[in-house]
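Per your request, structure below.
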């Protein structure tokens, strides 16, 4: 595959707004007008339920994982694969199909991380689960998982390149969650209702 085509594919695939499309198709609503207005899996889950939210989560993760996987199949250099992964994240957060709007990039970043360094990704995911299930704050779990990702990568991978990648992802997650951080500090962040717990 030509590298230019690879980059174009990575961005366009990342730009597919699965959250918007699934809510439109299965619920007949524009998810941007409900809840937080975000097209990511968390808001989709809050507004449309787990039957829509879970498939969106899986597909958003796939948007990050698939470009990395394809890059490895074609034996691209790590720097090329990384750029493809970054483009998929940027596509998700700044979708060309939604006039530059999009999600916060957590799920797609997680997909990239799984493809590049799966073990640190697994540890961050376990930490995310613990925090979200105990506090019901998805944003707090995402920020904490992103924060510890460079730490896990540093001690487990011994690879400076991947360590710098993990730092970039952490900074990007902080940026996209800047409003969530304000709400967490002001103690008015929205909690998530776990599907097995009755309201």
């Amino acid at each position: 595959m030509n590298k230019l085509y690879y980059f174009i594919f990575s961005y366009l695939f990342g730009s597919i707004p699965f959250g918007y499309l699934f809510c439109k198709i299965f619920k007949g609503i524009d998810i941007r007008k409900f809840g937080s207005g975000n097209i990511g899996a968390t808001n989709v889950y809050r507004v449309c339920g787990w039957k829509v939210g879970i498939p969106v989560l899986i597909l958003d993760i796939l948007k990050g994982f698939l470009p990395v996987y394809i890059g490895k199949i074609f034996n691209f250099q790590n720097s090329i694969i990384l750029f493809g992964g970054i483009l998929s994240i940027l596509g998700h957060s700044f979708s060309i199909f939604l006039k530059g709007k999009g999600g916060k990039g957590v799920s797609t970043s997680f997909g990239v991380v799984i493809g590049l360094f799966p073990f640190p990704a697994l540890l961050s995911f376990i930490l995310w689960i613990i925090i979200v299930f105990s506090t019901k704050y998805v944003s707090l779990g995402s920020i904490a998982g992103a924060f510890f990702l460079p730490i896990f990568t540093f001690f487990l991978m011994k690879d400076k390149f991947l360590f710098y990648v993990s730092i970039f992802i952490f900074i990007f997650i902080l940026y996209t969650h800047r409003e969530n951080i304000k709400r967490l500090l002001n103690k008015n962040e929205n909690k998530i209702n776990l599907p097995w717990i009755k309201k």
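The chain has one domain: 3-185.

Regards,
D.
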